[in-house]
Write a structure and sequence with these properties.
Elements: H1 10-21, H2 36-54, E1 59-60, E2 63-64, E3 66-69, E4 74-77, E5 80-82, H3 87-108, H4 111-115, H5 118-134, H6 137-145, H7 150-176, H8 181-189, H9 195-215, H10 217-223, H11 226-229, E6 240-243, H12 245-248, H13 273-276, H14 297-309, E7 316-319, H15 321-324, H16 340-361, E8 366-372, E9 379-380, E10 386-396, E11 402-409, E12 415-417, E13 422-425, E14 430-439, E15 448-457, E16 464-472
């Protein structure tokens, strides 16, 4: 550094450093767009919200179709009832979801982010309300810069009221997956909800209202970890939203009737529509950026301009890096889908799904635990036989009543003494059955003999559980 160069004041240096580290957020008011991909987003918004808001109200076998009842430790998924012991299947569903995300990302980029992510879906809904109450993107920008008056307060008040109603209903529905929603509705109506239920309803409502109404693209750009590690799943054959520089450059404005090729221009008219419709405010013409959520709004916007200019569509389109580099044409994209990365993801996903379905199909909805009487290890009956005391804990995990039969093996001439050998348990009921096992001491070869206790449903022989224990001589 030149010693003659004056040193800037410390305050200016700190200010410059602050500006380099932190960028002031410019509020984005995306322009409405219509087209094929916009219709897909609309369809996915409607479908996901129909499922999300509707499932808790659907009844199945006398209970809520989908309910994760944490208090009762039961998880209802239509006709399937899972217990804490079945947590492995809930884990399997999460693993399948993660692998599916990896596979879809390797094939076509951030499809989840652009069409089905809750942040995208609720931001889309909130922007519809914003356009309904405040007008198009130009009217909203004008309203943002105008001073507060009655008209602005009315529009903003109506917008936030509608946002709050949707956010509150979203929070209520979320808690309705963990507390029976009809019961939760009655408790809310009478202001008698529990502390945790009240907290999560309003917390989730506040999160929806804040994320979709205010933070929006900031969640995708700075808070979502997926934006950071997605690139490891991309390769040169991954379909992404791409601007065709070879066709679009050099860009520049021109009249519709002008011979732009004679002017040395590409197809891009530099209208900026692709930037105006982007919900994250990026310019796709600068190349693939981690802020791009793959919503394809820029494709619809650009296609509208190309159609008006009489140019071929697809200046911005879903394509691959290798197509842009000229290694093959768009018609060859399908032939490069089944590449090693995709095949590995697909094979792992199919293997996990297969294992999940097979183990679920072979799941035995019955649990058996054998508890030895710790106070009386062994005693002699009037007949001279040795007797051990046990308690069988039988859990019927199905939604129907079953009668069970008990049998024991492992020792010669073993007898079971129980009040009723034909036991029964109601739907999702746990019963505890005390039993006494008696053995001729002459048949025992050591101080402890391994035994196997078996419980079997009378009407379904496949509904069987076994538990190991031991018979003590003294």
């Amino acid at each position: 550094m030149d010693p003659n160069t004056p040193t800037p004041p410390a305050s200016e240096t700190a200010h410059d450093l602050e500006e380099s580290l932190y960028a002031v957020r410019q509020k984005i008011q995306p322009r409405a767009v219509h087209g094929w991909f916009a219709n897909w987003r609309l369809a996915l918004v409607l479908l996901t919200q129909l499922v999300y808001y509707g499932l808790p109200w659907l009844r199945w076998d006398g209970h809520q179709a989908v309910l994760f009842d944490l208090a009762a430790r039961k998880f209802y998924i239509f006709g399937l009832t899972l217990w804490p012991q079945d947590f492995i299947w809930l884990t399997g569903l999460l693993v399948i979801s993660a692998l599916s995300l990896f596979l879809f990302t390797a094939v076509a980029g951030r499809l989840w982010c652009g069409y089905a992510c809750p942040q995208t879906v609720y931001t889309e809904i909130f922007m519809w309300i914003e356009e309904l109450t405040e007008g198009g993107h130009l009217a909203r920008k004008k309203l943002d810069s105008s001073p507060w008056n009655i008209e602005k307060a009315r529009k903003r008040g109506l917008k936030h009221l509608l946002w709050f109603l949707i956010a509150f209903w979203t929070g209520f529905t979320f808690v309705g997956y963990f507390t029976p929603i009809t019961l939760l509705g009655k408790e809310l109506a009478t202001f008698s909800t529990g502390g945790w239920e009240t907290f999560w309803v309003f917390f989730y409502a506040f999160a929806t209202w804040g994320n979709a109404g205010f933070m929006r693209e900031q969640v995708c750009k700075y808070m979502c970890p997926y934006a950071r590690f997605q690139s490891v799943m991309f390769d040169s054959d991954t379909l992404t939203v791409t601007y065709d520089t070879s066709r679009g450059e050099p860009r520049g404005p021109r009249s519709r009737k002008a011979d732009y090729k004679a002017l040395g221009l590409g197809d891009c008219v530099d209208c900026g529509i692709c930037v105006q419709v982007c919900p994250t405010g990026i310019d796709i013409r600068r190349g693939l950026q981690y802020e791009c959520i793959g919503c394809a709004a820029c494709i619809d916007g650009c296609n509208q301009v190309m159609e008006k200019m009489g140019y071929p569509k697809g200046l911005i389109r879903y394509t691959t890096e290798n197509v842009v580099k000229g290694k093959y044409s768009d018609s060859g994209i399908l032939g490069h889908v089944f590449r090693p990365r995709v095949l590995v993801y697909g094979a792992i996903l199919l293997a996990v799904i297969g294992a999940f379905l097979i183990t679920l199909a072979n799941r035995v909805p019955l649990r058996l635990e054998v508890i030895r009487d710790r106070l009386t290890l062994s005693r002699t009956t009037d007949e001279g036989r040795l007797e051990n005391l046990y308690t069988l804990q039988i859990l019927n995990m199905e939604n129907q009543r079953h009668r069970y039969r008990i049998s024991v093996s492992g020792a010669d001439d073993i007898r079971i003494v129980v009040d009723d050998k034909n036991l029964q348990a109601g739907p999702q009921e746990t019963v505890q059955v005390p039993i006494r096992l008696q053995v001729d001491p002459a048949s025992l070869k050591g101080p402890s003999t391994p035994i196997l206790i078996k419980v079997q449903a009378e009407e379904n022989p496949k509904l069987t559980r076994e538990a190991k224990s031991s018979f003590l001589r003294r």
